[in-house]
Target: Extracellular solute-binding protein
Amino acid sequence: MRRLLSILGAFGLCACAANAQAEQITLHLTHAFPSRDSLFLKPIAEKFTQQNPDIRIELEGNATDCPALLQQLLRDGVTGSLPDMVSGICYTDMPTLAERGMLTPLDKLIADDDEWKNVGVEPGVLGTTTVEGHVVAIPQSVSASIAYYNMSLIREVRPDLRNLELSWSDILSIADDLKKSTPDVMPLFFEYYADSYNWSFNSLMLSHGGSVFTEDGKIGFNSKAGRDALDLMQRFGQAGMVDMTAEQARQAFASGKIGIYFASNSRLKTLTANAGPSLDIQTGPFPQSAVGGKLASGGGGMAITTKDPGKIAAAWKFLKFASGPEAQTMIVKATGFTPVNTLAVKDAAYLGDYYKANPNALPAIAQLPRIRIQNLYPGDNGPRITTVIRDHLQNVITLKQTPAEVLPEMVANVEKLLPRH
Model:
């Protein structure tokens, strides 16, 4: 560790050296969700390089989502071509990478760095990135499902609606009225298909007091909460939801063709910006169906994957900046993610005034006490289990099968993919 700190100190002193100039270090940073995360990673990297001209950040965003990023990193690990850093690793994927030794533990870097306590990341937040007692990444963002309401449409059937803390019964009643009054509009859309580890289905389950998998890796959706969640998805289809890709749905929402849209709060910036000023878009919390119901946490963290001591020192410097209040402000303003930096939230110079001027961001903040990390999908077949569950959910939403028909099939097909003890 002393060697790492001496290297890091050398970076700051070498500019004053009379006979040498520091050689620039290039760090390769891989990330997922290129259309979203590049909106904040690029300016963060540029700002960091301005302040640290001896460190250059090269961004690479080829993975479309969390499962794609995980598979890319696993392949890179086999071929010995891992990047130096990774941004946006989903919390549920960190154990898989950590147990293979692909994520550099950060415990000692944190403990030996006097500057860390001033960065603004609360110690408790590190629980999301701790695997078997070791911090393997720095939390970068938190997201959760929220409801987006096209009030320009909804006021035609609910002219007096002001309070958007609605139950599923309220929402489906509005959807039914929209279906009758405006048949060329899709009443509601629930993003479920392009989910990492069935994230939105996990939120439905958790909000009903259940879980897709139990903490000890057993199937949890074969339960009352699972049946209630599937029944609700069937009602989405009956209310007029058309099955389409998330990208198609986002375009339809921006065009005023969807009344109520359920998606991550990380889409807040793009959904509202694409809709433009002609549509009145407002947000509300994800309905809670059970006392003590929870929500699946999305978002992810930033990790170091290089084993080179010099690059580790430089990468740690970048991680501190990327989780600091200035960078967190960039992330929130570019996406709508919920920040993990308390300094950014409290200080008017960063996000204090932002939330006053952007009430659509408040439901996600209000939901923070409900958010928890969803339980892991057991074994090595997590991506395959995700696909099996997704395909069964599709049959329910498209009304090809009833929840009663789907549930035993889903249980049987998922059981085939579970680890054999």
User: Anything to note?
Assistant: DSSP finds 18 helices and 13 strands in the chain. Residues 28 and 116 are 23 Å apart (CA to CA). Confidence is low (pLDDT under 50) at residues 1-21. The two ends are 40 Å apart (CA to CA).
